[in-house]
Amino acid sequence: MKRMIMTIAAALTAYGAYAQNDSDMNGKKTLVAYFSATGTTEKVAGMIAEISGGYLYEITPVEPYTAADLDWHDSNSRSSMEMKDERSRPAIENDLKDAESYDVIYLGYPVWWGLAPRAVNTFLDTYGFAGKTVIPFATSGGSGISNSEAKLREQYPDIRWKSGRLLNNPSKSAIKEWLE
């Protein structure tokens, strides 16, 4: 009985070490970074982190977006103004530890005006990820991911981009299939 308890304890310890090292099944250190203004992308990112074993990190603007900021019908709203200016880089919290240690980065965002929100650019400018594998995923009420993905590839050519996926209300099994 004591031997069985020791075996179970050892297995749990090994699992805990695996779960805490943010590595995927291939031993690659994985980050799931996402920007979510309304919680939709956050939900998908959480499922990806759970299934992949990656570290979940929220790209957090220093100044949170309000409903008025997100009103895409208002050409003077904060999000509209940011998306009109390719150089716009809204300030984000700079609190990701050991960014250079990640091998694979899943990068999530809602599609705004066919592109990734400028906070995603701030994140990529801040941490770089040159030579790292980055796999985008997005949520959208009506746009695809292809235009935003192409623009990110153009803006950050030193990143090893993998094909992304639009993930609107995916099931865990659909995410698992995509990750495999």
What does this structure look like?
It is a single chain. The protein is of the alpha/beta class. It contains six helices and six strands, in the order αβαβαβαβαββα. Strands 1, 2, 3, 4, 5 and 6 form a six-stranded parallel β-sheet that branches. Helix 2 links the parallel strand 1 (30-34) and strand 2 (55-58). Helix 2 (40-52) packs across helix 6 (172-179). The longest helix is centred in the first third of the chain and has 19 residues, at 2-20.
Q: Give average pLDDT, whole number.
A: 88
Structural class: alpha/beta
Total beta-strand segments: 6
Distance between the termini: 38 Å
Task: Please provide the ordered H/E string of secondary-structure elements.
Answer: HEHEHEHEHEEH
Global outline: globular
Low-pLDDT regions = 1-20
Main sheet, how many strands, which sense, barrel?
A: 6 strands, parallel
Radius of gyration: 18 Å
Give me the number of helical elements.
6
What proportion strand?
A: 15-25%
Bin the helical content. Answer: 25-40%
Structural features:
180 residues, alpha/beta, six-stranded parallel sheet, 6 helices, globular, disordered N terminus
Question: What topology emerges from the helices and strands here?
Answer:
Blueprint: H1 2-20, E1 30-34, H2 40-52, E2 55-58, H3 78-84, E3 104-110, H4 118-127, E4 133-139, H5 146-155, E5 160-161, E6 165-166, H6 172-179
Parallel strand pairs: 1-2, 1-3, 3-4, 4-5, 4-6
Helix pairs in contact: 2-6
Summarize the structure.
This protein has 6 helices and 6 strands. With 180 residues, the chain is of the alpha/beta class. Strand 3, helix 4 and strand 4 form a beta-alpha-beta unit.
